[in-house]
Specification:
Layout (H helix, E strand, L loop, with lengths): L8 H33 L2 E7 L6 H8 L6 H11 L13 E7 L1
Antiparallel strand pairs: 1-2
Helix pairs in contact: 2-3
Length: 102
């Protein structure tokens, strides 16, 4: 004998909650890149900087990042602009492109 499954109120509520959480996560995922795009649309100024001994991407980001920018986002931008895979990639004497905005 074949048993059919019915969609109960409890199952409907669970499905609704699952879909609501999924939509919220999708919205957060797509909103974040648009914030970056707005930052990059500002007038960017590119400056070539020679890395000194003791410099790190974190210290350079603290020095050059705009005040309203998260340091981690600015480090990510520096990595993308300089085609770096990670923050370990810089060495004393190497040159980096630093991005600032007018």
């Amino acid at each position: 004998m074949r048993r059919t499954r019915r969609l109960t109120k409890k199952n409907m509520l669970g499905l609704f909650l699952f879909l609501a959480v999924l939509m919220i996560l999708a919205a957060l995922f797509f909103i974040r890149p648009s914030v970056r795009a707005e930052e990059e649309e500002r007038n960017a100024v590119y400056t070539l900087v020679t890395v000194r001994q003791g410099d790190s991407l974190w210290s350079l980001a603290q020095e050059y990042a705009p005040e309203d920018t998260d340091i981690r986002d600015y480090i990510d931008l520096l990595c993308r602009v300089n085609n770096l895979k990670s923050s370990d990639s810089i060495r004393s004497g190497s040159r980096l492109i630093i991005v600032s905005y007018e």
